[in-house]
Amino acid sequence: MTDHLKMHSMNKIGEHDNIVHNSDFENIVLMIKQSQIKAYSSVNHELIDLYYNLGKYISQKVEHSKWGKGIVKELADYIEKTNPDLKGFSDKNLWRMKQFYESYKDDEKLSTVLRELSWSQNLQIFSRCKSIEERVFYIKKTLKEHYSVRELNRQIDSGLYESSKQNNLIVSTAVKAVAPNASDIFRDNYTLEFLGLPAKHDEKDLRKALVSHMKQFILELGKDFIFIDEEYRVQVGNSDFFIDLLFYHRELQCLVAFELKTGKFEPEHLGQLNFYLEALDRDVKKEKENPSIGILLCRDKDDDVVEYALSRSLSPAMIAEYKLHLPDKKLLQKRITALLDNAESKDIAEDK
Description:
The structure is a single chain. It contains 15 helices and six strands. It has helices at 3-63, 69-82, 91-104, 108-113, 119-128, 132-145, 149-157, 160-165, 173-178, 182-185, 203-212, 214-221, 269-283, 303-310, 329-351; strands at 189-191, 225-236, 239-249, 254-264, 293-300, 317-323. A hairpin with a 4-residue loop joins strand 3 (239-249) and strand 4.
């Protein structure tokens, strides 16, 4: 064998060894990361347990009139003086732990779930949410969507809970067949204040802004959405057509097409969207995937018009509207109260 062939052979062996080594190294790094996640989770569980039990201890002392704010301040000063390495036990935080315990003490099952959240996440939920129902809502959402503290705060600011109570999503029979739990996945309105768009904008402006802020948009939609492309091309006959935004939804295992309209919803918009869904199902959808779903995202919509337009639709399409400003949470809360009062009055009338 010539020196050149020997060198070439040795290089090939070296490349193969490097590939094997790299694979081994990646496995080791993965093991380290998984162990770190488990360690953090274990530490977090212990920390939340500690805060809950401390809150319980302080609550019971206060309840029996043995302790007051002065004693808790003395406790905080004592911890700081005798154990300066222990951080996070100021009198303010100790009172928060008391509030933490009192917020969930009547629900033992729920108090277990709290260990899955960080203290910062728990703190935002129990201090900012007024009812146990609202707290449960954000606990479940945070766990499902893996919200960071910042993302969680944004959802609370946007009134996600209040909006979910007023969700008036109208879906066709075809949508129900693909997604029986559509109302838990899709919404009838989305808040897009993060786009920073002026009041006057066109569909191109909206599409470009959504693509530029795709991470925030997916947080608004839900993390099971995977972005595929903008102006996704489908060919029908000799003509090309372009879908504004195309996603894939992991849970539903289907393509989701978004058509953007900066004006009010008009029934004829459905024809265009249905055409795109047919093209996707014929030429893009894979055999094991479910039929594609379409969403018309409009600046405004009339629910009566939407209901009429979808009443005989055989296509899995939905209509949602978007807003460019965070809603007034107090106004949303008033609307929820009014809805609950109306429902209660109706139940009383029916009982009579």
